[in-house]
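pasting for ref
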Amino acid sequence: MMGRTHASTGAAAWLSGCTVAAVLGHPPGVYELAVGTSLAAFGAVLPDIDCPSSSIAHSLGPPTRVLAWLVAWAGKRIHAATRTPLDRPDRDGHRTITHGLLFVIVAGIGFGWLGVHGTVWAVAGMTGLAAATALRALKVHGIGRYVAAVAVALAGWHWPAPSGWWQGCAIGAGVLVHNLGDRQTNTGVPLLWPIKIRGQRWYQFRAARWVRFETGADGNPEGLIRWVCGLVCAMSVFGLAYAQWPEQVHDFMASIAR
């Protein structure tokens, strides 16, 4: 599975988006950066809850494994009930109902509603669990993972209610990035389900053949993708820090250059 790569792309997408917002005169707050990055990374692994062997399916032990099995079962049944004669039969429910723009909208609105109307306990719990899940996908283990998750949960605790829709935007952005990433694989994704395309309700959107790759195969570019995402994250954090505290960043860089 591509859990580590997906989480990296989600974090990079959110931080680069925050950088653009800062350039346009709307710099995000520290909590929006910390919580939003964690939620975007979580959203970027969320669609694979339809696969019992995925990192998110093992994030909380038996409960998430059972949830993954139920989502996969539902995806397989819905695929069988709605497919046309031109659609290929589905075997396991993976890359079905959670791998389209409809799920992007549902996840974004659902978690955004929670951010606005949920209690502080619900918001803190959701952000903490999201951070722990994202960090697990990124292969962060040990006490550091739980300390970071608690820190993000505390940030979520202080999230102002009117800004709660940021939570949905972050997770929705992560889900979208996940699906666009899966579009780069040979399998593709049914982005516009349930809209019928070329006689297929589960039409698989794929990138051009020369940029597609097979997940798990030798020579796939996931390592390079993660490296680029890490570079994007670092550059975004530096740019955001400079936009907020230009003098301090300038002094820090000058001290390094000495």
